[in-house]
Amino acid sequence: MSASITIPAPAKLNLHLGIHPGVDGDGYHRADSLMVALDVADEVVVRPLASGEALRVHCEPAVDVPQEKNTAYRAAVALAESFEREPAVEVLLRKHVPSQAGLGGASSDAASVLRALCTLWDIDEQDARVAQVARSVGADVAFFLDPVPTLLVGRGDVAAEKFPSLAEPVPVALVRPAGEGVSTPAAYRAFDECHDEPGDPEPLCALLRTGVATPAQVAQLLSNNLDPVACRLLPQVADVRGWLCAHPLVLGAQVSGSGSCVFGVCASSADARRVAEDAQVAFGADAWARAASFR
Question: What is the mean pLDDT of residues 189-197?
């Protein structure tokens, strides 16, 4: 048997998220999403098993959820079916990205499993069937197969444009309040009841095409019309957002995805660390606060 493969599974931020009202025939909203990957990541380890052994997925720390509902498990099964392989592998997910945070942790885990299995099974990652499997598992999974700054359209799962990595990293402070996060279905139900119109991603796209962007420029162009929805659903999210916006070292703040993590763009890594430390004190030990950056 081959040796195990270890791949990082980075978190993501939505610098722009524009959900459009109404749904298609399958019940999905149109979503324009500009995503970037962070240097905060889970660690995914995939180890081949002997033929005939059953696929198994473990999480550290452990979660009280059947493995069959884990996106990593579903991704492995779907890829095996698509390429007629036997999913005799063991997957270990070392979790560092919180769930229900809008940071894409589960989707990134699934994508890293797909990439690891492509290596183990000698499958070309560029094969269209791999991306098709990724989209079948979740809207964000395909982004993590090649997590460069990307504008996604359709249901938020089709790459319309990829951008060069920025010449300099953009520092951010990430703060997820304690308690249950925002479920995506609940966020969309609340959006359907009352929503802001989606913004225009083009100014941010134009900036990213240059490959050079200052934190201040990025902060001025943030847009997410699920941000007010998350703040309505969870007052703790609104509290964190208001606190970040008022912090003197934060240039701009926004909910990522449907929440519940809020990020604040900072001028330097030192500022981001200071904001994360201040947030940990302000919101208590049960909150999750980290400094990070994206390119």
Answer: 92
